[in-house]
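Q: Structure tokens for this one, please.
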Amino acid sequence: MKLSTRLNVFLLFIVVFSVACSNGEDSNSDPEKSESKEPTNVNRITLVPEMAKGIKVDEIKLVKLADKIQVPSQIKVDEQKLTRVGANVTGRIVEVTAKLGDNVNAGTTLAKISSPELTKAQLEYLRAHSLTLLNERAAKRAKLLLDADVIGAAELQRREAELQVSRAELSAAKDQLRLLGVFDEAVNDLVKRGQILPSVAITATKGGTVIRRNVVTGQVVQPSDQLFKVADLSTVWAVGDVPEHIASNVTVGQHVEIQVPALGNISLDGLIVYVASTVNPQTRTVTVRTVVENSNRKLKPAMLTSMRITETAQKQIIIPESAIVREANKDYVYIEEDTNDFLRVPVELGPEIGNLRPVIAGLSVGQRIVIDGAFDIDNERKLEELE
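A: Here is the predicted structure, written as tokens:
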């Protein structure tokens, strides 16, 4: 190799070596550039004092809160004030006097029935009544004869025994008439006239409103047939079906609010008086019941209602809706870490109760959270994140 060529190669090597050394010194002389920059927490934000003035912060505390269970329900007849009226004897209906919706009192005639069995019972009573009168006279006459020493004591005792038997037969015949629906007034009329009554009345045993009529004139009925339903509607039942998975939260004595859509969503107050001990296998629900006053008769049986049952109050953490911000279908709140310093944390919340949300997880008692202005803080945090 020629000398000039060797010299050029040597000079080139020196230049390359110098450049490499220079680069090495530059990289070592600025350690801050060689170190990686620390990551920032996108959930933390510091507000300027002017913006922080509009933020309201409060300390988390345990509060007694009662949730409300809402279940479908309907108005039903108070079965303790419901009477079912039927015939006491097999026979034919000769007259129907009661109509649906009639208000009746105890003893009001609803219909009239005629029956061969009834005729036979009246004849037996008249026979027993006549025999009793005859034996009473015979006993009185025997006593007079005994006093006059005409007959002996044995004869008086025989006639008194016959009177006692006839009285027992008369009482049995009268009881039979009562079973057939012939009561004292009708019995007295039967004795007074001495004529068989062609029919007897089927009467209401209690006062109320006729809510069902299953009979027409000329119909042949039996004692097992239900002819009328009479209900006192001054109080009614509101009956609801609570899903079995929350039925354990419902007990007798709990307050309940009943809303009636048909009456403009008026609200009625009451208490749970009954909780079923079994689950309906078809609907998987438990029946609950309350008694509602109905003095104005606006509530009608079978009317649909909505029952809101207030659960027993329990202490829990609650936060207002204004403290919650949402992102990606998750709920967050801002905790105050220091003056003007806030940290966004995720929370798990229960169903809304009014304008409050119970906290299931994510917060603890004593922490201070933003209860007003959380939306503004979240917007500021997003702007800083974009920068």
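A few notes: The CA atoms of residues 59 and 368 lie 4 Å apart. The chain is about 30% helix and 35% strand.
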